[in-house]
Amino acid sequence: MGDSSRAEIIKWRRLILLVTVPGVALFSFPWIPGKYKIMLALPLYAMFVFVFYKYLCVKREASAVVNGSGKQTPPGAVKAGKGNRSVGTPAKKVRKRR
Question: Most exposed among 9, 32, 75, 91, judged by the fewest C-beta atoms under 10 Å?
Answer without folding.
Answer: 91
